[in-house]
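As a warm-up, study this chain.
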Amino acid sequence: IIKPILRGRDIKRYKAEFADLWLINTHNGYTDKNGHHIPRVDVKKDYPAIWEYLNGINKIMEGQVERRYDQGDHWSNLRNCAYFDEIEKEKIFYAEIVFDSAFHYDTHSLYPEATTFIVTGERLKYLTALLNSKLLTYAFKTFYAGGDLRGNTFRYKKVFIELLPVPKLSPESQRPFEILVDCILFCKEHNLEQKSGLFESVVDGMVYELYFPDEIKAADCEVLKHIAKLPEFKDDWSDEKKLAVIEKVYKELSDPKHPVAIAMEKMQEIPEVKIIEGKGKK
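Now compare it with the structure written out below.
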């Protein structure tokens, strides 16, 4: 019943900095997505050490824990939560108030704290790539977030995230985005920032092409057609094998003579890209 949690401040772009904080998930019982009933947690009976701890806190606070509004069947239980199953799935974490885009793809059943929000469903790695891209970050800050809140922060509100235009791609067309997200996640986890930076830049170029196809084609700087055959990347591989793939992909894409590197360089002269990158006039 002890679950790791993330706060909004722990979420970075493609990365979560776990602060060793935990949730005591003393739930009332619920029915999972397969129709199985998960029985109520009886803290006093099944977890006496936790019961003693909670009871001690309740006494120190003169019964305020016992009288809290969100209690379940017993004050030592949490109230029912309709989305326990969703939390256990793969998901995207994000914070509402941020300095920059900060969306993290999670497969470790981390739990969201009050300042943290989640997205579940399909195409999550592809969505992670789009949401972390410079283009959608710029679009959100400019058209959806309503300006800065304080100190250059802005707000990702659910109602506006749902309005972001997301191109629908076939599974085959999404695959390069997913592979690069896998590479970025591994690099972030192992502090390979130089390699991660290159992969993130390539993702930015791919996203520019999705949203500005005519401009990209006219400037002869298409990226997607040169990146469709990235090597496979599988979760059950060893770290050594994953690193070998990343080294291979990085070596290819960082070569100034590679078509992707050439296209990325030419792309910087497109007026729309220059505005988003902060190098041109609005």
